[in-house]
Amino acid sequence: MAVLLNPSIRKSIAIPLPDMLYKNHMIVLGFGVCPVTIDTKIIQITQLRWGWGNELKSEIGNFWEVKVYKKSSGKFTSLSGNLPSISIHIIGRQLVVGRYIYWCAVDCATVDSVLKTRNLIVSFDITNENFDVIDLPDKIAILPLSLFSVSMLRESLVLLEYNKDGYEIYKEEQLGCTVWMVEQGVERSFTKLFSINAPGDLMTVLGFTKRGGPIMGVQDYIFESTEELVVYEPNSELSNHLISGSAFIVNSYIETLVLLGSSDCSSY
């Protein structure tokens, strides 16, 4: 069951999800609103569980199984063309930029009985319902999964590259993050925008303000439970502390009238 909530008008609806019939598989959900038709869509992706590699025979074949729900029709339909390989695994939460949903992912392949992995980005066009795989520069494609992520900066997709894990205390270099703009085009290019020096021992870039300032979760001591939410100014390298807590998640928010004609707490 998936629940869609529009806090602007305080309405929610429940959507029953298709059953997963395969062992050793998992479900990944995506959500977005088509900017052309304003139709609400849920994307249900069935993929191999992380860690199985592609040496395990898949019941669904060599590609993902994907179903798309449209609120206008009230049902799920299957996609059959241009689907990513079953060897690609989505890692982490989705990011919506314009008409696209993005996920960090890793491609696993077994070569001479050795599991090889390569980082990449998977995108889904909410309007045309097409997938695309974005290859990353070699230095980022081979990073540990904890050292790269995606975010949105001024309505554009950016790639975040960390130089080390905060727990790697044996490394003397200061923890930092480089922000790369992902340029659109037939061949994607990556332009370095700026680098962030961590004001503490641990740092996670959670998003960006409208003016482009990084919003970060920071801890001053590695084993301290309290985290600070701060806004960082790259030019002055000064941080504006907002609130303290244990963990933070930051998402973009746009007011909309989606679900206006629906009954609150209704099931479809």
UniProtKB/TrEMBL annotation:
<feature type="domain" description="F-box associated beta-propeller type 1">
    <location>
        <begin position="3"/>
        <end position="197"/>
    </location>
</feature>
<dbReference type="InterPro" id="IPR017451">
    <property type="entry name" value="F-box-assoc_interact_dom"/>
</dbReference>
<dbReference type="InterPro" id="IPR050796">
    <property type="entry name" value="SCF_F-box_component"/>
</dbReference>
<dbReference type="InterPro" id="IPR006527">
    <property type="entry name" value="F-box-assoc_dom_typ1"/>
</dbReference>
<protein>
    <recommendedName>
        <fullName>F-box associated beta-propeller type 1 domain-containing protein</fullName>
    </recommendedName>
</protein>
<dbReference type="Pfam" id="PF07734">
    <property type="entry name" value="FBA_1"/>
</dbReference>
